[in-house]
Amino acid sequence: MTEPALDALLHESRRFEPPADLAAEANAKADMYDEAGRDRLAFWERQAADLTWSAKWSKVLEWEPPFSKWFIGGTLNGCVNAVDRHVEAGLGDRVAYYWISDGDTERRTITYADLLREVSKAANGLASLGVKAGDRVTIYMPMIPETVVTILACARLGAPHNVVFCGFSSDSLSGRINDSDSHVVVTTDGQFRRGAPTPVKPAVDEALQKTPGIEKVLVVRRTGAEVDWTEGRDHWWHDVVEPASDSHEAEAFDSEHPLFMMYTSGTTAKPKGILHTTGGYLTQVAFTHRVVFDLKPERDIYWCAADIGWITGHSYIVYGPLINGATSVMYEGTPHPADKDRWWKLIADLKVSILYTAPTTIRTLMKWGAEELAPHDLSSLRVLGSVGEPINPEAWMWYRENVGGGRTPVVDTWWQTETGAIMISPLPGVTATKPGAAMTALPGISAEVVDNEGKPVGNGGGGFLVLTEPWPSMLRGIWGDDERYKETYWSRFPDVYFAGDGAKKDEDGDIWLLGRIDDVMNVSGHRISTTEVEHALVGHPSVAEAAVVGATDAMTGQAIVAFVTPRGSVAEDVSSGEEFVQSLRDHVAKEIGPIAKPRQVLVTPELPKTRSGKIMRRLLRDIAENRELGDVTTLLDPTVTDAIRERMAGGDTKEE
Ligand code: WTA
Asked: Which SS3 state, helix, strand or coil, does residue 16 take?
């Protein structure tokens, strides 16, 4: 973020008090902060007691930094908490999901009783394929009800799920399958994107050429596309799950039994398998979902518009809402220009009262204009949430004024795959919000902004965001790599968790997130590592060297800009051509996935390096963002940057 933008942020003086009616009935009142502050562990113990346990824990927390265990000795089943207990309480007829297909051509209403039947069948089906407690199951599926059912069936069996976002490439998929050592993959023949069927299974087939461990593939028929079939390995869902018994006895697992892993980009080329366990994770996702969105399960219609392939989908489409007995909207599609008012139609039609989405989406809808909203009655909305990247005050205000009719609180929620659940956010019935600020750590959570030495900054200061006390839904580690876990999160400052984000405290002590300060980019709320993209680029036969930076982008938050030097054998007229640049962009999309495609690729004969040979990324970022360059005296060859800059100005890039 540039200094003037930052300055404007910090001088934001608008305040929005919670609406009186919401405040009066809110699930969380102001005294919750004191309550948690007096005895943090007793507070979390009370939240945990809202779950259904088979055996109660004997101790709340065991903390041997950086390893934590929560609710020790307790046993429970994640799926029972999400589904069975509501049916047993007589709420089987309550709708769990209104599922809407891409473009709203098909709808399915799924009650909690339906979900219990489907999940039981899927658990029996997966068990018949050999899945048992402790086995990892990789899930590569689009936004369809079977994806939720598969996740819950895994939880029911105690088999940690490993969901891989369906937009990732076959290479990304095979890496995650191998690292997690999964033996079973669940997928679909295809999916619907923007009104058209696109294939899914071919990516799995390709990935499986490099995954010797996979024994079984379970395939949901979604589009009816022709698919290649490997007898003995591949099985149709309708042959295995549909005919299975709809009764399944769930076993209780230890509170620390692994519930799932989710791979996320780090600062190296290899994604990290973030591990979450059962009792603490479920406690905190349910608690945060209840208080941050002020969920009233008997009357709210809640819509989290994330994809299940990311942590937001896990915590706030699947586990949080289901544990709380919520009625959710699950939409298969994403906003697109040929269908600009689809969201507003759905909100009006289904009377959505809580909406949770990302700033990139808000900015897209904002670009399409308030006139798209005007014909639709959005008065059912009462809480609006934002997640995934810093939200600029303009987008925040537009969200509140136009989507929320100026009535609704906007909760900007900061958290990460690693934190499992929301950590910093306003409470809608308590906090006077400021446009663009995540405000304060939730009750029971301890966050701080520290300087280089790890000392808390005063009000008005900026630095690194850290979490100073363990929390129930914290990652338990990186799958198979304790050293990397310590090194990544716990080595920057002793015994405090380093989040990788920059933050500021304003004059009131409220927290503003400023984005990643490491080599992780945040593009449309998706984490992508610069090293991963560089790795993909240098894997191209015509590339000698590559450097990648995240440049500020008005729409996507950050955008990927790549600087590439071609191999000597590539002729100048080829390497400077449009086709070459396009082939590099396509190569990255193929290696990682379309979300990692660089916005710009700049071909240059040299990269700017320090005298010790390090690529000067800061400088490249300045060039990519068109800023005046800072100090270049340590450069090996200062003329290199001039050459790069000239090429950039000359339009020797590809922009979409
Ligand atoms: C960023 C998504 C500013 C941040 C839940 C974090 C945010 C990374 C916010 C985690 C927010 C998430 N304001 N930045 N409200 N929420 N981030 O793991 O940089 O996909 O470290 O989890 O997104 O991304 P992840």
From this structure: strand
Overall average pLDDT of the 200-211 stretch: 98
Cβ-Cβ contacts under 8 Å for 488 (sequence gap 6 or more): 266, 267, 272, 478
Decide: pTM greater than 0.90: yes
Percent of the chain with pLDDT over 90: 86
Query: Residue 362 Cα, ligand 1 centroid: separation in angstroms?
Result: 15
> Is residue 410 helix, strand or coil?
strand
Best mutation site among 413, 422, 513 for ligand 1 pocket (most ligand atoms within 8 Å of CB)? 513
Lookup: tokens for 66? 């950086």
**Rounded Cα distance, 472 and 489, in Å:** 17
- Residue pair 327/162 in contact (Cβ under 8 Å)? The answer is no
Judge residue 179's burial from the number of C-beta atoms within 10 Å of its C-beta, 0-12 exposed, 13-18 middle, 19 or more buried. Answer: buried
What burial letters (b/e) apply to 148-169, b meaning 16+ CB within 10 Å? bbbbbbbbbbbbbbbbbbbbbb
Taking CA atoms only, the protein residue closest to ligand 1 atom 24 is 416
Cα angle, residue 419 at apex, residues 442 and 272 outer, rounded to 5°? 165
> Is the pLDDT score of 651 beyond 60?
no
Rounded CA-CA distance 528/512 in Å is: 22
For the chain, the distance separating the N- and C-terminal CA atoms, rounded to the nearest angstrom, is 22
Cβ(513)–Cβ(465) below 8 Å: yes
Q: Is the CA virtual torsion 80, 162, 304, 118 positive or negative?
A: negative
H helical segments located in 549-627: 572-575, 578-591, 617-624
- Is-cis flag, bond preceding 19, omega within 30? no
600 Cα–ligand 1 center, Å: 24
Which pLDDT score, from 0 to 100, does residue 407 have?
Answer: 96
- Concatenated DSSP letters for 512-566? EEEEE-SSEEEETTEEEEHHHHHHHHHTSTTEEEEEEEEEEETTTEEEEEEEEEE
Q: What is the DSSP string of 413-428?
A: EB--TTT-S--B---T
Mean predicted confidence (pLDDT) in 330-351 = 95
Is there an atom of ligand 1 within 6 Å of 513 CB? Answer: yes
- Here the tokens at position 17 are 């008090």
Alpha-carbon span 367 to 359, nearest angstrom: 12
CA of 151 to the centre of ligand 1 (A): 23
Reference 52, options 78, 33, 31; nearest CA is 78
